[in-house]
Amino acid sequence: MAEQADGLMTIQDYVRWGASRFNSAGVFFGHGTDNALDEAAQLVLAALSLQPDLPASFRDCRLTSAERTLVTDLIERRVSERLPAAYLTGRAWFAGMEFDIDERVLVPRSPIAELIEAGFEPWIDAERVDRILDLCTGSGCIGIAAAVYLPHAEVDLADISQAALAVARRNVEKHQVADRVRVLESDLFNGLAEERYDVICCNPPYVPRAELDGLPPEYQREPRLALLGGEDGLTLLLRILREAGRHLTDKGILVLEAGSAAPGLEQRLPRVPWTWIEFERGGDGVLLLSRAQINQYQREFEEA
Fold first, then answer.
1. Which of 6, 115, 155, 296 has the most CB atoms within 10 Å of its CB?
2. What are the residue ranges of helices labelled H in 175-304?
3. 8 A C-beta contact, residue 192 and residue 247
4. DSSP state for residue 103 in the 8-state scheme
């Protein structure tokens, strides 16, 4: 396909060409971008070691011969390998922060970022959030962003995957928060003993098996362990609801992403007064419960 790029010279030329390639090839978007132009821009700028906020005036800058080859090859890999852009570039953004990403972890895309940027307010007073748990942490993006936006808080990042935790450790160092952020191997709460937190955030595996098997190839390139939530998507969600109350402080809150399993959760537990957070920038399927609410419905969680 390299010959089809003949005559292209500027950054904008390659963004346009890349978008056309993606559209004609039926590439799927959903890992940080939702359209071909943004996806192409992400790849072109990454190939040139440029940031996404590049001033528009630089879009007319010409590429060297070596840069044109680099950009072309990256765009063609996106088409032929169906790898999410973050895996090709090794970077992704979450809550306005850059994270190192590879195929050991999910590509960050949770709407929980919006909550973190607000310090979890109005759901809890940010000033009294002293301890935060990022459960099923993956790359560590949720917990590390929380540590940056709430600089007085201590944060634990927990995951069952040693491979994912290696990426999380790299991001802890990248953002220089090792003095307040611990990286812990744990199967949900099993490795956390009697630890208690003011905020527990969790984006667990919640995709039902049949749904996962039918997702576009880009999702199949992500770690299955981080996506599959059992036959109905509820396996880990229910475990978390049963156990979270023991790890929250008296005024603590649980922020739990249920995604596409949200309707099934409501159907399984119809008496629970779910609070589903509305996000200004889009996204849904994130619930919030206080420790008091979890304790009130503990028996229903146990029996579900």
1. 155
2. 209-213, 217-220, 235-243, 262-268, 291-296, 298-303
3. yes
4. T
Mean pLDDT of the region 114-139: 97
Question: 123: buried, middle or exposed (CB in 10 Å: 19+, 13-18, 0-12)?
Answer: middle
Q: Which of 263, 264, 244 is nearest to 255 (CA)?
A: 244
Enumerate the H helices of the chain as residue ranges. Answer: 11-25, 36-47, 65-81, 85-89, 112-117, 141-149, 162-174, 209-213, 217-220, 235-243, 262-268, 291-296, 298-303
pLDDT in tens, 42-77: 999 999 999 988 998 999 999 999 999 999 999 999
CA end-to-end span of the chain, whole Å? Answer: 54
134 and 142 Cβ atoms separated by less than 8 Å: yes
Question: Backbone phi, then psi, for 72, in 5-degree steps?
Answer: -60, -45
* Interatomic CA distance for residues 145 and 94, integer angstroms: 8
pLDDT digits (tens, 9 = 90+) for 138-165: 999 999 999 999 999 999 999 999 999 9
pLDDT value, residue 11: 95
Q: What is the pLDDT of residue 4?
A: 55
Domains of the chain, each with CATH number or no CATH: 2-89 (1.10.8), 91-303 (3.40.50.150)
